[in-house]
Write a structure and sequence with these properties.
globular, Glutathione_S-Trfase_N (chains A, B), Glutathione_S-Trfase (chains A, B), 4-stranded mixed beta sheet, Glutathione S-transferase Yfyf (Class Pi), Chain A, domain 2, 8 helices, homodimer, Glutathione S-transferase (chains A, B), alpha+beta
Amino acid sequence: MNRLYHVPLSPFCRKVRLVLAEKKIEVDLIEERYWERDPDFLRRNPAGKVPVLRIDGLAMAESQAICEYLEETHPTPALLPSDPKGRHEVRRLCAWFDDKFHHDVTSKLLYERVNKKMMGQGYPESRNVKAGATQIKHHIDYIGWLLDQRRWLAGDVMTLADFAAAAHLSCLDYISDVDWNRNTVVKDWYAKIKSRPAFRSLLADQVPGFPPPAHYSDLDF
Amino acid sequence: MNRLYHVPLSPFCRKVRLVLAEKKIEVDLIEERYWERDPDFLRRNPAGKVPVLRIDGLAMAESQAICEYLEETHPTPALLPSDPKGRHEVRRLCAWFDDKFHHDVTSKLLYERVNKKMMGQGYPESRNVKAGATQIKHHIDYIGWLLDQRRWLAGDVMTLADFAAAAHLSCLDYISDVDWNRNTVVKDWYAKIKSRPAFRSLLADQVPGFPPPAHYSDLDF
């Protein structure tokens, strides 16, 4: 059986979980407290990070590289368009969320509020939380701007870019850090992606010590 | 004519420059002081970062997404293998260097010593420089470990993974922060890649206020 070593509130793990579910690839989810640096786990991925996917006899690391592998080996449904320009736009947006959004927002809100406590690294730094709360607004505006021109983030069909974005936003929504009233177009896009069967496992996540708000798993939030 | 907006000592720009040169795609290099946030430049890339490549009527951002695009539109010479497992390994290692090595080493040495001064952000933080100097050793050991099993970083042929690694190391070599005597296998690998015609433009770079050491452009260093 395939195995995904993950933590529930990692946007990178969630992106891979969404891709696996969308492509109907069955997988056992195994929670890995990667910050404890278990030697067995470090052998699987010397970078010491999740996600790690055990599939086809390999232990694969790095979420974007994993998603590209799954796209190549399980091409249906397609999560990248077939033309190089369209593929570039999807990959650019994945990098936007996994790099810029992660730096500006996810690391400032989720990591301060949840990861620090989970890893025993003290209390949230209020300066960071404040910066993250400001910057998420600009990012929601950017998503809204994209969606004013396109049905989905990278074009007219749903792609990996939507999953990358939704993976980050869903983690932040778990801790009530997304103001869905800021932009109804963004809210409608998230409602569409949230109602997909692939999203169900994410909505069922429960992190001890951090109960999700009622709206988190509500499809009509 | 194609245009690459770049800065000379950016590992991400250098990775793209190596790919362009290896694939013999001509390009005008335009230095972009991206930290000054020129509105014209921000229109090209709202992320406000280099590299940005103007090609085929588009302004493309994000180095890995650009390299994937170039690989798809200019497949010769191939910089990704044809099998999904091999492609995953190349992409995993690109992420290793552009994410982990960048965080552990490049941001701690190059950004502290050069970027801060260039951007008027003060003096190097010695704690960071010290951490970077320690961590580069572990990374050189990891590269050496890979090369004990393979001719090139991701397997038996040269790939984008070698360019990603060499892009970071060449920036650090420009400021004499690589101890090539630590591992002769790593040194030999770097000598091989450094002697490629694609590398010439990198070796000719000159950053005002930061003259490179003599060994930087010496193929017999």
